[in-house]
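Dear U.,

For the methods section draft, I wanted the exact inputs and outputs in one place so we can describe them consistently. I've listed the two proteins in the order they'll appear in the manuscript figures. Please don't edit the C-alpha cell lines directly; just add comments below if something needs changing.

First protein:
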Amino acid sequence: MPLIQVQCKNCGANFSMDDSMETGTCSSCGSQYVMDKPPVNINIGSINLSDGWVFSPEKKDIFEMSKTEYAIPFTRDDRQAKQDLLCKLISYDNSPIDIAYKANIKSIKREYYPFAFFEITGIADWEATSIWEHIEKYQVPRSETVYFDRQGREHSKPGSEYINGNRYNYRPQTRTVYDTKTRTVTDNIERTSGSISPVTIPVRVWVSPAESDYLKDSISGWIRLDQEYNEIDDQYLKDFDTIAIGKTVEEATESAKLTAQKEFANRAESEVPGTRFEDFSISGEFSRIFMVYRYLPVYHISYEYDGTEFEYLITGVEQEDLQYIKEHPVDEGIEKKAAAIKRDISSLFWSEVAWIIMAIAGGLIGLHALAFLLSNLQSALNIVICSIFLLIGAGMIFFGGRKSSEFNKKHYKAKKMQKDFKENVASLKQKIYDLIQDDSIPDEGKGATIEGWIREADLGL
C-alpha cells in the first residue's frame, strides 16, 4: 500500500504511515496518530468541500468531554402551561367553540430534552479560482416597419382609413432602431488562496431518539447558547421525565464535525475575492473538540377532545412563548361555513369585475362609433350604423355600471359577514375561556352556561 510521510507534532520527526491503516505510531517518540478522512464531495452552495486526508493527533488528545451537565430550570408551572394550551387552542379559527371547556387534560409532564453542545477549534486553508466581472450595456441595430396614415400618425400594424367615403391604406416605412442589451464582461481570472486562523465554532446537536423532523426542528430552535444554565447532578434529572439520549458520543461528534466543516467552508467562501469563484477547495484540521450535555425544559401535555387524543409541547421557561402543536381539534361546521363565505366573496368579486369590464367595453364601443361617425357624416348608412353602435355602447355602460354597483354592495356585505363571523366565534371562545378560569363557579354550572351561550349565538353551524 502507498506510504504517506507525516511530521510528528510532538517531536518533529518524520515517519511513514500506510494510507490503508487508520492509526500509526511515531518511530521516534511513540506518539499515536489517526488518519481522519472527512466527508468527500459535500456540496455547499457553490462550494465543493473535498478535504482529502487530514492528520490529527489521537482523539484523546483533542477531544474533551465535560463531566458536568447543565440544565435550564423550569420557571413555568403546571397551571400556566395548561392556560397556555387553552389560549393556543382558542386562537385557531377552526377550533371548536367549546374547546376550552371540553379539552380533557390527560397528563402534564415536565420533560428535559438533551442536546450535545460542542466547541470545535480548528484552522483551514482554501483555494479558488476568482473571477472579476462587470455588466455593460450595448446596442444592437435592427430594422422595423411602421405605418403612417394621411394625418401623419404612426401605427405599428398595416391598416386603412376612410375619408369622405374613400379608403386609404396606411403608408409603410422601414427604419433602423437600436435595442439596448446587457452582457457580462470578464475582467480578470486569478487563482487565489487564503487561510482561516484558529477559530472556535459553537455547534449544538440533537441527541434525543429519532422523532419527526417537524418536532426536531421546532424544539431545536428553542435552545440558545446565551441561555442561563444551572449545573446539575444525576439526582436532579430523576425528578423529571427526562428524554433518553439516542446518539452515542461518537455519532454526536461526527455530526458536530460535519457542521463545523460546513461553517469553515462558509467563512472561507466569504473571504474569496472577486465577483464570483469556481473550483473552490478547502482543507483543515481540528485542534480541540469540547463537548457538554445541556438539557432543555419542555412541558408535554396530552389532552383529549371528542374521543381523540392530541399532544402539546411548550418551553418550560415562562418568559418565552415557544410552542409545538402539530395537530389540534377542528370543528368541521366552522370550516365549512368559513369556506362557503370565502367562496361567495370570490364569486361576487369576479361577477363585479365582469360587469365592470362590460361597462368599459361599452364605453370603448361608443367612442369608436363616435369617432367613425364624425369622419363619415356624408353617408346616411354610416350614420345609422354608428348610431346603433352608440346605443349598444350606452346600454352596456348603463347595465354594466348598474350591475357592478349591485355586486359591489353584495361583495362588501359578504366580507362584513366573514369578519363578523370570525369575530363572533373568537369572542365566544374567549368568553368561554374566561369562564373556565373562574374557580368560584362549579363545573356543572359552567357547562349549562356555555351551552346557553352557544345557542344564543346562533352561528348557523
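Second protein (the one for the lower panel):
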Amino acid sequence: MCKNQKTATVVIPLLIFSELAFSQNELSAVQLIRLMEASKARYVHMSATVTCRAYLIGQEQEKKELRTERTFIWKQAPNGCFADVRSTLASGRKNDQRIQYFFGIDYEKQIVQEANDIYGLIVQKGQIQAPLFYSVYQAIWGMASYSWERLWERVDTASVFYDASAKCYVYEFQIHGGTKSPWLRIWIDPAKDYVPVQYEILFPDKKMFAREQSFNWRKVQGLWVPMIYTSLIPNSSYTEYRVEQIEVNIPFDAKSLDIEFPEGLWVEDRIRRVEYRVPSKKSPLESSEQKTTGECQKVCLPPAATDEQLAEAALKAQQLLAQQTQTVEKQSPVISPEYVWIEPGRKEYVLTVEMDNAASGPVLGGHQFDGGGLVLHQLREQIADKGQIQLTIERPADMTGYGEGTLVLDLAGQKKTIYLIAPPLQQ
C-alpha cells in the first residue's frame, strides 16, 4: 500500500462458535481454498514474543544437541513487518548477536549487531535472504515458505480428501508440476476455521522431506493461533518455537515498524549504491554557520546534504515516481477483504476502500449481488467519509453446508469482485 493512500481500517469482532461441530461435506479444491482465503483475511495485525530452539536429531528423531537458541519480537501489519532477533547460541557456540529487520512494500532494512561490529543495510524488496525468525503468521499461513499463489496455480491437479483420524481436510499437489516435482501436503482443520495445522514437503516419490506442525491452539480475539510450532527434517534437525506473548488484531501504526538508523551507524544502501555514516542531529545553525573575518559579516549558508540525506531523497523520489506512475496508469481502488468470512448469527460486515489522495475518490457506480443463498439486506457506501462500504448480510439458519456468494462492485468504472464465504456447519 502506497504512503499517499488514505486507509480506513476496521477490525471486525468475531463471533466465537468453537463449540459447534462441523459436518464433513465433500469440498472441492476451489471451495477449500476459498474457505482458507476468507479465514486468512481476518488476521490483520499481529505481534508476538517467541523463543526458538533448534536441535540436531538422530535416526530415531531424538534430540541430540542444542545448536541454536534465540528470542524474537515480531510485529506485522498489512503493509509491513518488523522483527528484533537476539541470539544466544548459534552452531552450538555461544553467540551474542542482535538483528533488527523491517520488510516494507518498497524496500527492506536491517541493523546487524555482533561482537564489536554494527552496521545497517537498505535493499530492494525480497533481497534479505533467510531471516533468523519464523513468525506465528508464517507458521499458520506461510505455506512452508512456498508462495500462496501455488494453491491456485495447481488447483486443477490437486487432490482433496478428508482424513477422519486427523479430523482434517488434506490438500495435496505437486509444487512445480511434472513427475520430478516435489509435493506439498496441507492438513486443514475445519474445527479451527479452516486454518492449516500441518505442512509436509514430500519428495517426488512422496517420501517425507520436511514437516511443519502447530500445536496448543488458542483463540485470541476470536482467531485461532498456535502457542507452539515446530519444523522437522528427519535424521537432521528439529526446531521448536514457543509463543510467550501474542496479540491479534489490536491495531497499531504501521509506520512504527520501520527502522530508524541511530546516529553514527555505518549504512550500506544497495538501492542507491551509496555508503554513509548517519550524522548526528545538529541544529541548522550548528551545521551550517560559517564565520568570516575583516569587513565581512557572519552569514548562514544552507547545510551541505549528507550521503544519508541524498540517499533518502533519492529513495523517496523513486517511490513517488512509482506511485504517480501507478496512479496515471490505472488509479485502481483497493478493497479489502476480498474474501469475507460469513458467520452464523452475525449480519454486519465492513469493506475497507483505499484510494489515492490525489484522486477525487472512487464513486460506487452500482453493484451486482449473487448470494447463493445468502441475503443482502443493505449496502451503505461511506467511501468519501470513512473509506468504507458497510454490508448487512444474513446467513439463513437452514444454510448448514458450504455457501458462497459474490458481490461485484463498480468503483471508478472498474469491476471488483468480493467473495462471501459461509463455512459448513453441523446440522
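Candidate sentences for the figure legend, describing the second protein: The chain is about 15% helix and 45% strand. The longest helix spans residues 307-329.

Thanks,
Y.
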